[in-house]
Amino acid sequence: EAKPLSSMRKDSLGFVVEGAGAFAHRIMKFDQPIFDVRYTLDAQGHRISPPSSSSPEAELLIFGCSYAFGYGLDDEQTATWQLGKQLGEEWRITNYGGIGWGAHHMLALLEDEKIQSVTADTREAIFWAIEDHIWRNDRLTVPGKGPHYSINANQELVRDDSINEKYKEERANLNKNVLGEEKYQKELERCVGNINRTSIQIG
User: Fold this and answer.
1) Sheet with 2-4, side-by-side order of all strands
2) What are 110-169's pLDDT values in tens digits?
C-alpha cells in the first residue's frame, strides 16, 4: 500500500522514514517520473551502505541531509555507498543522513544517544554541509517538527523543541513578507502539489 511522503513518522528529530526494509520512492511531474528508486533501510532505520567485514578495522559515520541520505537515488548510487565501495570492507559505514536535516540533527542524535557504539580502532565522521543548513535550525526552509537550538542570555547553547509551533506562524509571516502574498500562495500550492505527487511504497 502506497504511503504519501507527508505521512512519514515524526519524532524528536523531525520527519523519519518509518521502519526497516525496502521502500520504493517515485516522484511524478506532468505524468512523467522525475525519479523512481528504492531506498533500503537497516534495522536502525539507516540507509544501507556496502557490507563490511564482521570485525572492521575502521568505522565511518556520515551525517547530513538528503544529500547524505541519498534522496532520489537507488542504494548503490548514493555518495555514502560509493565511498564505502572505495574504502573497502574493512570500513563499516553508517549513514545518519536524513531528508531535510541539518547540523542541529547531528547534535540532537548525540544528545539523544541515538549514535551506535563505535568500537573500531580507527573512527571517523563526516558532516556533508550545504548553505541551506544555516537556516534550517530556524525552520526558515524546512517545515515540520524537529530539534531547535538557540543561544540564551548567558551565551549558552540550549535546546527547546517546543518552539516549533511558534515558528510555524513566524515562518509563514516571514515568507509572506519576503515573497508577497500572491507569490507566497503560489509557492505554497506548488509545495503541496509536490507532496501529493510523491509516494513511498513498501516493497
Assistant:
1) 2-4, 198-202, 21-29, 32-41
2) 988 888 888 888 889 999 988 888 777 765 555 556 788 888 889 888 887 765 555 556
Asked whether 37 and 25 are in contact (CB, 8 A), the reply is: yes
Residue identified by cell 555514502 is: 80
Q: Give the pLDDT of residue 164.
A: 58
DSSP letter for 55, please.
S
Determine the angle formed by the axes of helices 181-196 and 164-179, rounding to 10 degrees: 120
How far, in Å, CA of 111 to CA of 160, rounded?
Answer: 13
Task: Read off the C-alpha cell for 18.
Answer: 518509518
Query: Rounded distance, CA 193 to CA 34, Å?
Result: 14
What's this model's pTM, rounded to 2 decimal places?
Answer: 0.73
Give the residue carrying C-alpha cell 544501507: 48
Are 164 and 146 in contact, with CB atoms under 8 Å apart? yes
Is a pLDDT exceeding 50 seen at residue 198?
no
Q: What is the pLDDT of residues 51-71, one digit of tens each?
A: 998 889 999 999 999 899 998
Can you give the three-state secondary structure of 21-45, one letter per residue? EEEEEEEEECCEEEEEEEEEECCCC
Cell digits of residue 125: 565522521
CA distance 191 to 177: 18
